[in-house]
Structure formats: structure tokens, C-alpha cells
UniProtKB/TrEMBL annotation:
PROSITE patterns: 4FE4S_FER_2. Residues 223-253 form the 4Fe-4S ferredoxin-type domain. Pfam families: Fer4_16. It comes from Clostridium neuense. One of its GO terms (molecular function) is epoxyqueuosine reductase activity. Its EC number is 1.17.99.6. This is Epoxyqueuosine reductase. Keywords: 4Fe-4S, Iron, Iron-sulfur, Metal-binding, Oxidoreductase.
Length: 343
């Protein structure tokens, strides 16, 4: 048994990680093969997958890398503010990747420092990962990938994954007691509003609400799928919320630092009235999938929500948005006014 690998795992547990496994970097080769097969099968997704290429080929980017340390941390312990429930995906509400105030962010930094002190060369990318994380976690024994494509541990799918590549040959498999999906279950697929999750393990990212309301959104006023977005404003949890294997896994035990203060400022009405300076300072650093120039995309998402869940109190806000300085916001607002005969 590799003593260094065991020391890393022990340190990870001490820092609050749920699981920690280590695999050879060679185990990512199979992921690259599957990744390329998928691109060949669905050429229209080529553009999307091109941006993910680096995760499939870590050896090209880190030629010195020999192993991958992969960890899970459960986030289903935070209280979900009522105003935001179902509107903003939980992974974004409780995102610790960039939030320096969270214990998890500090644990991430402490673990990296510890590995360096052990003499290892390591590399991570806190925001976007260094390898195909779910694949690495499955190979490391951290959990299983279910038909909705999420990785599940005993905490359900409410886990954040973190990974480092290292220059040391190591292997340390984790253990899990996660059972497979019930044979006849297809609840995640039948519940997907856009049919992006069309078959087991088959999801078209460019039709997924999570993509279309965050970094993939470019022309929502013309996107016919937007009519199916329901309550979603930024991200989507539907295929995880409906999963029986997530039942009872969200515990709501503690407040997420800073979120109670922010929640009243993220209601649909508040977003639509939000000023650029406030957005850049308070909102964008947390929800970093949209840039500091893209408050307009939040506003288009909110207008889409208001159309899909229309009530009279939204009328003056939608009419006001027809005079917004951004043409996409105006386009969305006008189209709603036309459709609902608002004046
Ligand atoms: S996140 Fe939402 S849109 Fe995307 S696959 Fe799941 S249910 Fe479908
Ligand atoms: S909803 Fe059913 S099929 Fe889908 S991931 Fe959960 S258990 Fe598996």
C-alpha cells in the first residue's frame, strides 16, 4: 500500500471530504475514447465538446502527470432559501469553488498545500476541473454514474467533485455502497422538460436548461425550448430532484455563508431591476458562468420565467423591460407583450 496515497486520503477526511480516491492517469484514456465516440455519433455537439477536450486528454496538457487524486464533498446540508428554490440550481447556490468564505474552499487550498509539502507536483483547476471528473470519481470507486449522468455517492448526487493531477504514480481505491438504478426507473428522463435527457446516460448538453440558462445562452428570445423552462432561471435540478435515489438526501442543516443576505436580491423582480455595478460586485463573482458583462442574460432568463409563470404583478416590469438598453432584453420583453397582449 502506498503510504503517501494513504496520507493524502487521511488528510482529506480530516479536512471534511466525504471520499478520496486515487487512480492512474492512464485510466482517463478510456474516457477520451468514449468522448471521441460521442462526438462522432452526434456531430452537431462538436462545438460544445471541443471546449471540453482538455478534460478528456489531461496527458497532453500535463505530460508529467501520473495519477489523479479525486474527491467528493457533500453539499446537501445547506438550507435552501425559499425564494430561490427551483429557480437557481443548488450546485450554483452552494458553489464553494470560488467562495473563499467557505470551509470547503479553504479545505481545497489546504489539501493542495499538504500534497506539495509531501513533495508532489500537483495541478488543479478549481472552477472547471483538470479531468473528466465524474469518470475519474467512478474509476476511483467514489460512487456510480446514474442514468441521469450524475455521479452519486451515499449522499446522493448532491456532491461536488474536486481533482488534482499529480506527478507520482499512485493508486488508492475508495469504497462505496451505492446500489444501481432500479431496473424499470426512467423518472429522470420522463421529467426532463426539454427532452435533453433522451435515454439512459444520453444527454444533449445544448438542449439542457442548465446550459441554455448559463454559459450556453446566447439567443434565448429565439429559443423555442425556452417555453419549457418552467420555474428555472439559472440552471436546472429537475432530473436530480425527481430521482428516488436522492430521496431524503438533502438535509438542510446549516446556512451557506452569505446566501441568506443575497436571497431577497435574487428574486425575479430584483434581477430585472438590478443595476450593473451591483451585479458586478455581488452577483457575478458567485455565479461566474455568466461574465460581468452579461447581466442582460439574467434579465432575459427572468423574462422567460415571467412569461412561463405569468401573473399580473409582472406586467409593469415586462412593459418597462421593453425600454431596456439591451436589445435582447427588449426583444424578449416585446415578444411577451405581443403574446400576452400586454400594453
Ligand atoms: S438538468 Fe434539466 S434540462 Fe438538463 S437534463 Fe436534467 S432535467 Fe433535463
Ligand atoms: S431517476 Fe431513476 S433512472 Fe434516473 S437516475 Fe434516478 S434512479 Fe436512475
Amino acid at each position: 500500500m502506498d503510504v503517501i496515497a494513504q496520507m493524502i486520503q487521511k488528510k482529506a477526511y480530516k479536512l471534511g471530504y466525504e471520499k478520496c480516491g486515487i487512480i492512474s492517469i492512464d485510466l482517463m484514456d478510456e474516457y477520451a475514447e468514449k468522448f471521441n465516440e460521442r462526438i462522432e455519433k452526434i456531430p452537431r455537439l462538436k462545438m460544445f465538446y471541443q471546449s471540453q477536450q482538455r478534460l478528456a486528454n489531461p496527458k497532453k496538457i500535463y505530460p508529467w502527470a501520473k495519477s489523479v487524486v479525486v474527491l467528493s464533498v457533500a453539499y446537501g446540508k445547506y438550507k435552501v432559501p425559499e425564494e430561490l428554490n427551483g429557480h437557481i440550481a443548488k450546485a450554483y447556490l452552494f458553489d464553494t469553488r470560488v467562495d473563499k468564505n467557505t470551509k470547503q474552499y479553504q479545505s481545497n487550498r489546504a489539501l493542495e498545500k499538504y500534497m506539495q509539502e509531501l513533495g508532489l507536483k500537483v495541478e488543479t483547476n478549481q472552477k472547471f476541473g483538470v479531468v473528466g471528473m465524474r469518470w475519474a470519481a467512478m474509476k476511483a470507486g467514489i460512487g456510480i454514474i446514474r442514468r441521469n449522468n450524475f455521479l452519486y455517492t451515499e449522499s446522493g448526487s448532491w456532491v461536488q467533485l474536486e481533482a488534482w493531477v499529480t506527478d507520482r504514480e499512485m493508486e488508492l481505491k475508495e469504497t462505496n455502497n451505492v446500489v444501481q438504478c432500479p431496473k424499470a426507473c426512467n423518472r429522470c428522463m420522463t421529467s426532463c422538460p426539454t427532452k435533453s435527457l433522451s435515454a439512459p446516460y444520453t444527454m444533449s448538453p445544448t438542449e439542457c436548461i442548465s446550459f441554455l440558462t448559463t454559459f450556453g445562452v446566447s439567443n434565448l428570445p429565439q429559443e423555442t425550448l425556452s417555453k419549457t423552462f418552467g420555474n428555472c432561471i439559472y440552471g436546472c435540478d429537475i432530473c436530480q430532484d425527481v430521482c428516488p435515489m436522492n430521496k431524503g438526501k438533502w438535509k438542510e442543516e446549516i446556512e451557506f455563508p452569505g446566501l441568506p443576505e443575497l436571497s431577497s436580491l435574487l428574486t425575479p423582480e430584483s434581477i430585472l431591476k438590478m443595476e450593473e455595478d451591483f451585479y458586478r460586485e455581488r452577483i457575478q463573482p458567485k455565479f461566474f458562468y455568466l461574465s460581468s458583462e452579461e447581466l442582460w442574460k439574467w434579465k432575459v432568463n427572468v423574462l422567460c420565467y415571467m412569461r412561463n409563470n405569468y401573473k399580473e404583478s409582472y406586467k409593469p416590469l415586462i412593459i418597462d423591460a421593453c425600454d431596456n438598453e439591451n436589445n435582447k432584453v427588449r426583444e424578449m420583453a416585446y415578444s411577451i407583450c405581443r403574446k400576452l397582449c400586454l400594453q
